[in-house]
Amino acid sequence: MNKERKSGILLHPTSLPGNYGMGELGKEAYQFIDDLSYMQQSYWQILPLGPTGYGNSPYQSLSSFAGNTLMISLEQLVQDELMGDDFIAGVPEFSTDHIDFSKALPYRKDRLAYASSVFKLHASKALKKEFSQFCSVNDYWLEDYSLFTALKQSFDLRPWTEWPIALRDRDKEALEEVRLSHNDKIMAVKVRQFLFDRQWKALKKYANDKQIEIIGDIPIFAAHDSADVWANRELFFLDEQGYPTVVAGVPPDYFSATGQRWGNPLYDWEKHKATGYKWWIARLERLFELTDMIRIDHFRAFEAYWEIPAHEETAINGTWKPVDGYSFFDAIFKAIGDKPIIAENLGIITDEVEKLREHYGFPGMRISQFGFEGPDQPQDLKPQFFPENNVAYTGTHDNDTTVGWFNAQGDDGGDTRDEGIVAMEHQRIIELMGTTGEEIHWDMINVTLKSDAKTAILPMQDLLGLGSEARMNTPGTSEGNWEWRYTRDQLTNEIMDRMRNIALDSERI
Q: Which of the listed CATH numbers 2.40.10.240, 3.60.10.10, 3.30.1330.40, 3.20.20.80 matches domain 6-439+446-505?
């Protein structure tokens, strides 16, 4: 048995089953860990854990340090005596296979607000002592985030650039006045962050005790409407009113003919370097508290990033700008030690990006769906020849599911393939894998797990054999994303036994 060969499942906690509108950190999360253990899996990979803003995207978070409190288990709050059974009885008729954010969020926010008020009045001395310790340890981000959140609530969730100038520009006297007048709101935010932190760390410990590690995800860029940018304007390219002068994205690629204009403000790397990368060090230290390993999304931006003038409506008219990634990672590892990092090296990757990744020994990523594009394709992009120091995926959260990808007709909005390319790929898959395509997800799971890549990760949708209706995200679109959930009856004993046997057969236990 090769102990270095491992595998796992990609599933964001919001996609877990349950009765309360969206996945949460309660019994279904613990059951999922038990299922991973039974299937001989070593990893649970998640998407970013931060609180989501517009579009509910975990990649556009209101904070790089805070947790998404909407994931808090309501049943656990009952057990902690922060609400009664009657407060979660008579649950609205939520969908079980997707999140209706317009219904689920108000329901959950109402109950979390109630639990916060009960905590303030009736929490036990032991719990309040634990809360006080949490606030003290996390003051470096919690104070700004709780103030930011309280202000957003007061201004109807408008972005911080539309607040009164004194608050937008963080005038000390104005902020102190808000701390006094909004004390209850600020305290409630801190309580919810404490409850999330407490529940998440208990869940992580349960996973680690089962010899399952959590792979976290860190978006390289911060959202403009976030506590990070509001509290650290000097670290970003912004104008005097706080608006970005240039924004992040990527040029035209597989996912979009006009590129992807993400809109995040870009870092002033010279300013970060002058601080010794203090903000980044704190950011990574915090995430390593919550996870065991980190996937850095869009790693290539540590070598060069695509700079788009803020007035441009698409990502076509951008420019590559260099970054001193060696200075950055040398400072990071000096501060936090040698930590396990996965470098997302998909898209337009240059030799310089690969040299940076290889210099630090970071495993890269390989996607099996991308391995059948034609005879001129580089050999190491084909699943049969994936290099060892990589994490192999059938697909990621940005891909269509394997079943949906295989059944696509081309020009359907999900990617840039036309009918001819799809037909060619189908033919190559059938010839190279000796398959009829009737169980294409199992064919792809097999070839991915049996590749030479040390680690293999499967989206839950592929394990369940679901079609495009279960796609998590379509890049370049703003609606219908991040909603998918699986139902408890979909993960059958037959599927788990089959996955367990493949893990054993491919020596990934």
A: 3.20.20.80
